Amino acid sequence: MAKAIEVTGLTKYYQGLVAVDSISFDVNAGEVFGFLGPNGAGKTTTIRMLTGLSKPTAGSARVLDCDIATEIVKAKKEFGVVPEQSNMYDELSGLENLIFMGQLYGIPRLERRARAEELLKTFGLFERKDSKFAAYSRGMKRALTIAAALVHKPRLLFLDEPTVGLDVVAARSLRAIIKQLKASGITVFLTTHYLEEADILCDRIALLVKGKIVAIDSPAGLKAIAEEEPALEVSFKTPLPHAAGELGRRLQGLEVVKLDGRIRIHGGDTDIVLRAILGYAGENGTQVASATSVRPSLEDAFIKLTGLSPAVMLAEKGGR
Amino acid sequence: MWYENLRGIYHIALKDMKTYYFKPPAISWGIVFPVAWILAFYLRNPRNFEELVPGLVAMTVLFSTTAMEVVVINFELRIGSLERLLLAPVSLSGILIGKILGGTIFGLMITAVITLASVVSLGLSSVHIIYLLLILLPSLLVFSSLGALLCVLVKEVFEAQTLANLPRFLMVFLCGVFVPISTLPPVLKQISYALPLTYTVDGIRQSFGSAGDIAIAIDILVLVALIPILIFPATKLLARRFV
Q1: Pair B78, A85: CB distance under 8 Å
Q2: pTM of this structure
């Protein structure tokens, strides 16, 4: 399969501190590749190196078959970048911003206006095409920033935290657009804090922690890592505050976790576990309200592989 | 590559003209300030106003080019839009030259208006147009480049504006705008020859038919030589923001 990005031992130090620690990975042409990790993991630094905004301390990378050290300007003609910050020109209207981008990429005059208007329609901004960027809402600014990255019809799109700060509706709309981009054959390199976003959108995900890649796989593959042991989630009709501790004592060797109104038991023979739960409920004069075999989520895989809580990542970004 | 850079330089200059120039800060520093200053000297001694015209034109060149040039790069770095330019197929030096060209074109337009108004209103007839253009064009590029260099020397917009006032006022007083260099004490005279506005004022004065202190060819050569001398370190300093 053709590679859109090939990274070998890419490393970045800032003032003696490692930001990206010898990472290696490939991105296949046409796939949505997710870079998932907390703040400071090195996601944005990696994008900056791959797009020529920052020089690697060590290692090499090829983007669309161009060496980023020597052929970055050539590569820039073929990729688009949506930075975390919506950084279009406040003083220009939406249409003027897109036309200016078209000028920088050498799109002929008539074609660039048509392309700009087409993108404004695609992103639902056509009615506001003559409004200044400064007057746009946060969601509209984000949409225009993405549209600007698509003016020259890139083969590869870097999206750095595309939905941060967007409301639920705008974020959902943006995800639909990312799916459309993939369907049209564009390779997407996506960094995100949001596990569900990565799960929905990405063909493969790299988990990045403290500058190192701890795992690369499909969402299903990552979940399978967490699925080594079966898990059962139960709730009781009457709350039993000591249930987790008591069941943990009765089911020696199994991990029993108290959740919000539920208890999760990892591992063990399902028949033995169920009998122990039913017995415990009966002894305490109540019944089992629900018992569900739990399929691991990407969140479970993330916790298992990184040792980090997804809540920490969301809190860092004031997440949804 | 060179073609993409040229295209980028052209469109960045046009965009800067549209977004930054002909706005209140550029107008006040680029036009009102030199005119007000010259007016003050005119009111003091109206009979010799013709002698002040080269200084008026030179000050217009200095202030119109540097007014926004000392601001735009740091401003765009702060809001992130300079990165937007860097993500396009244009080199960093191309982006910087585009910004310098924007200031140069604005300066040229303002200077042309001030020069024409002065020539017509005072009925000056001995203006050597070719000499004037040969002095003005490199001067505009020099002071626009100086503005860019002063801008990238510091990180904040207000720091650059403050920093820019030092060389600007030093040049206004030492470069023959109001006081002939020949009347300056020897030490100040040496300093004045190290400042680019000296060559601009001297060249404009000769273009207006007056005697100069330096051969006009030297004025032009010094100004042309200063352009890369200012652009090169500005490019290096800007590149350091993206290590």
Answers
A1: no
A2: 0.81
